[in-house]
Write a structure and sequence with these properties.
- By secondary structure, the chain is mainly α.
- Helices cover 70% and strands 0% of the residues.
- It contains nine helices and no strands.
Length: 271
């Protein structure tokens, strides 16, 4: 397993994301005018939801800290930090670092990137002994994971292609127009989600998938709450693609919740 330094960094990320997420999520209107770039209150609350979800994922993963179970959740956290840091570098000329909230966002991502590099270097030095398969994921589980990976990767690649080329959105899927900076940040989030879930397609132990779902469930729930807080921003008659945005989170929440209740949350000894 990874060493104690990497574990402490993961706990640190849980604290930083919880602090940042609480500010952005519970005070989105006030925070939006002080954020690292120009964003709406809805985008601010959504980013706050990412951070609170990351805090839960980092905490429960560090608490369990068994590589065979938590590896994909850790990979998500590492990729999130690295991808979002790349977005900051690409759009560095548009950063607004005039308020502590903006600096807290940047410092949290930098800490995440450090944890990613440290953890990945430890991982590559580990002896990857094969573990005996316990309860294998069912075929239905693998099909659902494949659909999830494909859909979220599509959103990530499409968003990155538009955002990094200086093109934002017009409010077709997300109910507000987004700048290339915001769109690229969303794309980085989706790419981290999809790439980290990819190894679940060949995972030999169901508990790996269960932990990933349990650790990620905070993200799904809190983003869904943010969506319903601003549900009045959606005009489903004029822009029906908004149903895809809302429906995707609700569907994932229901399916993941069902499987967690049926098969457990991936903790050692749980079934």
């Amino acid at each position: 397993m990874l060493n104690s330094a990497s574990r402490r960094l993961t706990y640190l990320l849980a604290f930083l994301y919880a602090l940042l997420g609480a500010i952005l999520f519970f005070a989105p209107v006030q925070s939006s005018s002080h954020f690292a770039w120009k964003v709406s209150a809805f985008v601010t609350m959504t980013i706050g939801a990412w951070c609170l979800g990351n805090a839960w994922l980092a905490w429960v993963t560090a608490a369990r800290w068994e590589w065979s179970r938590v590896r994909t959740a850790l990979i998500y956290l590492w990729l999130f930090g690295l991808f979002e840091t790349v977005v900051l570098v690409v759009f560095r000329d548009r950063l607004q670092l005039l308020h502590p909230i903006a600096w807290l966002y940047v410092l949290t991502l930098l800490a995440n990137a450090v944890a990613a590099v440290w953890g990945a270097s430890e991982w590559f030095r580990m002896r990857h002994a094969s573990t005996a398969a316990e309860e294998k994921p069912t075929l239905t589980m693998r099909i659902l994971v494949a659909g999830y990976v494909a859909f979220v990767a599509f959103l990530g690649v499409l968003g990155a292609a538009r955002g990094l080329n200086g093109r934002g959105t017009t409010g077709a899927l997300f109910p507000e127009a987004m700048s290339p900076f915001s769109l690229s940040s969303f794309a980085a989030f989706y790419l981290a989600l999809s790439l980290s879930a990819l190894p679940l397609l060949w995972a030999r132990d169901r508990h790996t998938l269960s932990h990933h779902g349990y650790a990620s469930y905070g993200l799904v729930l809190i983003i869904t709450v943010a969506t319903f807080v601003y549900i009045d921003r959606f005009d489903f008659a004029a822009r029906p693609l908004g149903l895809v945005y809302v429906g995707a989170y609700v569907l994932v929440a229901l399916l993941a919740g069902f499987y967690l209740l049926k098969y457990g949350n991936g903790a050692a000894g749980r079934r």
